[in-house]
Amino acid sequence: MIHRRPLLAVAFMAPALATYLAIIVYPLVQGLVLSATDSKIGNAGDFVGTANYVTMASDSGVIRALGVTVAYAVVVVIAQNGIGLVLARALFMRPRVRQLGSTIILVPTLMSAVMAAFVWNSLLAPDGAVNSLLKSLGLGTLTHVWLGDPSTALWAIALVNIWMFSGYSAAIFLAGYMNLPTELLDASSMDGAAGWRRFVSVEWPLLAPATTVSVTLSLLGSLKVFELPFVMTNGGPAGSTTTLTMLIFQKIFGGQGSFAYGTTIAVLLLVVVVLFAGVTQSLLRRREERI
Question: Is 144 helix (H, G, I), strand (E, B) or coil?
């Protein structure tokens, strides 16, 4: 019986392992192989080695898309988690409205990104609700072509992302709040810690696990954003909202139909995601261990 246990373990692991190899490992290997060719639509292509990577390293479009992606992710992660944390604390401190409030803040999360993009396209249009509201408040000078100006288009899209998923981050932080030791919170209150002081000294350190989860998920989502810029601006104006995922789409399904080069950019995106997620996870896990 003892000798059969390893075989039994392998038998249980085999379906999951086979699925992982077929869905994750095989496409990854195929992508790496494809990125080493000059394949295009209707053409299997020839092996070109690292030529695509050399071209990508000096491609201004790729470099700009990388900068747009990173800037977008930084803004979204900071704002989404900051707002989520504020909402979570407000709900935690108000038990009577906690259940209803938790439901309300999650409503935007339930919308599809495409639907949210169409709704906000209408709101942010030159004659949309946002500019109309500013005019009605006597702030007509602040009206703007939000999605038509390269200096504001990316941040307008980031606003939609933050609006959609701040409630999701709030739910994660609220779960962390609900797991805080009651006796520790009571002791801090008895010692005179309240408001900002209690948050900084007691609540924030104990929310480290929730912070790790929320920051990591928001980082991964923002680095891979596609639907919002695709629907709202199609990467414009003047490429100001062209993220790496948008650029991959354009290279593969655009006029060039370059499967190989698009896959090469996809490999870059994979490296960026793994690098940022790995560093973030490492820093946040170390913080958890110190606490």
Answer: coil
